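Example S7 (structure tokens).
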């Protein structure tokens, strides 16, 4: 946690400017919180400008000025250009003092210090990462992983819900490392704080609070639990044997989008998971405009060793019983008979209670997720991936 002291002034021509007392900005892994005290009269003036709190968030973003910002009496240059919105606005009135606070989406600052440092804080509990890397017992120490040309060191932070990472030689492949961690754990792991040193030797800090509570996740990929990656299922083997660095920047970008889409999909209802996961399959094994989507995907999935019939049949009785029709021009209507048709129906004609109930009860989304994981693993060079002996009945591989 870092706390900056700052002068805060709200600029408003109609109601008069207000200078907050005891202004501060607190940077924690969960939020960037602005705080200040106001008198009762100032609270009334500020509130009068925002009846029912309408437009207060936009006002705080555009019309608040921060000056004389310091960290332990050291002058700090504050940069809020990357802050897109404010949230969690609160006014707290009591007999002792009145305060106002709100949260920033992201922020950056820099300052001069004798010992600037370079490291990053990521949204993954160190104890969980250490366990995945093979560390057992209560005596936790730094863990090292080779990825590309870099050696990354994972360490504990003051907050056990997060991890610190240092690099032996730059951060060129760091985004790839986060992408692979995200795929392996099925958790959208991100950089919360980045500490770097600029050309003038200043300590630069960029802060982007975590949107997910990874401490409750356990960093466990549901689909990978039923599969073998290759020679080993350990995280270290996965990171050190991936072919990520062999891809072009464009292909890495596509893989990253697919991985984060897959990881974040588990936080949404099943009918939305269906559309989200389908978008990944469509990107890598569909997307043939003017062609029958099921036939096109069936052909493309073969290249990954996936049998589309194990995901869903071309004429699925449970989908047919929904009695849905894709209405087209020139009376060329088409009955919805498979999951590809179902996706098109939802996209063009919206969903129904019956469709949502079907997706909640069927294994379709689970099978589609298995297909996505197989595709991503093979894209990353794990061509011998497959389902464990006791779970062959779940396999979507030919």
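Recovered sequence:
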């Amino acid at each position: 946690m870092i706390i900056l002291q700052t002068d805060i002034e709200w600029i408003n021509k109609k109601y008069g400017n207000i200078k907050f007392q005891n202004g501060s900005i607190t940077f924690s892994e969960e939020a960037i919180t602005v705080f200040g005290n106001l008198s009762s009269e100032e609270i009334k003036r500020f509130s009068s400008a925002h009846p029912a709190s309408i437009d207060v968030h936009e006002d705080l973003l555009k019309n608040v000025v921060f000056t004389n910002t310091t960290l332990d009496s050291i002058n700090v240059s504050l940069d809020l250009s990357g802050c897109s919105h404010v949230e969690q606005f609160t006014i707290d009135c009591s007999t002792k003092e009145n305060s106002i606070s709100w949260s920033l989406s992201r922020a950056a600052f820099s300052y001069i210090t004798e010992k600037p440092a370079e490291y990053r804080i990521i949204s993954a509990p160190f104890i969980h990462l250490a366990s995945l890397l093979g560390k057992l017992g209560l005596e936790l120490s730094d863990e090292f992983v080779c990825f590309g040309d870099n050696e990354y060191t994972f360490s504990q932070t003051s907050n056990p819900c997060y991890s610190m990472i240092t690099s032996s030689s730059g951060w060129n492949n760091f985004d790839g490392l986060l992408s692979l961690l995200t795929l392996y754990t099925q958790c959208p792991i991100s950089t919360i704080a980045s500490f770097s040193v600029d050309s003038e030797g200043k300590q630069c800090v960029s802060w982007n609070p975590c949107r997910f509570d990874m401490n409750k996740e356990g960093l466990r990929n549901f689909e990978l639990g039923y599969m073998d990656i290759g020679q080993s299922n350990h995280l270290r083997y996965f990171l050190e044997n991936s072919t990520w660095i062999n891809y072009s920047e464009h292909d890495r970008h596509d893989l990253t989008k697919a991985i984060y889409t897959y990881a974040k999909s588990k936080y949404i209802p099943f009918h939305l998971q269906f559309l989200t996961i389908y978008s990944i399959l469509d990107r890598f094994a569909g997307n043939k405009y003017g062609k029958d989507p099921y036939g096109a995907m069936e052909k493309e999935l073969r290249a990954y060793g996936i049998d589309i019939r194990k995901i869903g049949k071309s004429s699925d009785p449970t989908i047919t019983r929904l009695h849905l029709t894709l209405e087209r021009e020139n009376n060329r209507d088409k009955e919805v008979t498979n999951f590809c048709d179902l996706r098109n129906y939802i996209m063009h004609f919206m969903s129904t209670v019956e469709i949502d109930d079907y997706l909640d009860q069927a294994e379709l989304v689970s099978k589609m997720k298995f297909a996505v994981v197989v595709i991503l693993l093979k894209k990353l060079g794990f061509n011998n991936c497959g389902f464990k002996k006791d779970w062959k009945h779940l396999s979507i591989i030919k």
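Notes on this example. DSSP finds twelve helices and 18 strands in the chain.
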